[in-house]
Specification:
alpha/beta; single chain; seven-stranded mixed beta sheet; globular; 301 residues
Amino acid sequence: MRLTVLGCYAATPRTLTNPTSQVLEINNQVVLIDCGEGTQVELRRHKIKFSRINHIFISHLHGDHFFGLPGFISTMRLLGREKALHVYGPKGIKEAITLLLKLGDSWTNYPLLFHELTSKEQELIFEDDKISVTTIPLDHRVYTNGYLFREKLGKRKLNVTAAEKYGIDKAYYNNIKNGKNITLDNGTIVSNSELTFDPPEPKSYAFCSDTVYDESLAEKIKNVDVLYHESTFLETETDLAVKTKHATAKQAAMVAKEANVKTLVLGHYSTRYKSIALFKEEASTIFNNVLLADDGKTFDF
């Protein structure tokens, strides 16, 4: 599972920092999470192929989380995209995007499918044979969701040495990987567990931005491998966090600890602070395994 942070700062873009956008590669799926201004440029900078992105998940309709989306959709048209692009986000996102396409007479020449969200309860919004995606209702100034991505359990891995020991023809290897036992010519049944290794444990990733501190959030993301949680402020600005419905680094760590996650990634920093190292310093007083997101940073989990 690989996370590429294209932008992780709050509010407005600056020459050296970008608003929220990230690419998650999970079980050979590539998804875009939020699409702040500058997303296209950062995708090119990090050599991530636009064509690999088929699903985009927008948390909420504040500009620093989706103002890059109209441009990205338009560029896909110029690049000759043919396959469908799915956009998941709050109700209103279809109206916002299609109005711009209408006024510019620049409708896409590929299927553009919107999946508008209104529920304030956790719900499954996408699933295939590789991953599932569930919403994480958040408490912000407008309707907001985080997203929980889970890998599906993969196929068992072939133990070639064991297969060769039993003299099993390679023509049966796919059946073995699909979980089937093998009957030898002499009638002996070789169990699948003897011929395969367990698949890797499925990974999970929870994206939570933006939200006020919410104790109940931990139950929705219990035991995930990686939690990205906004940390717009430090504890010295708790009053601002409450007023703007954002969280502090310490509060993000409290959620991570309560949820028993393996790794906490902080982001969505206010640019009022001189160093983002302060966020890790604060969160580490509560939770041990803290990483700092930063523009252009890639994490492999």
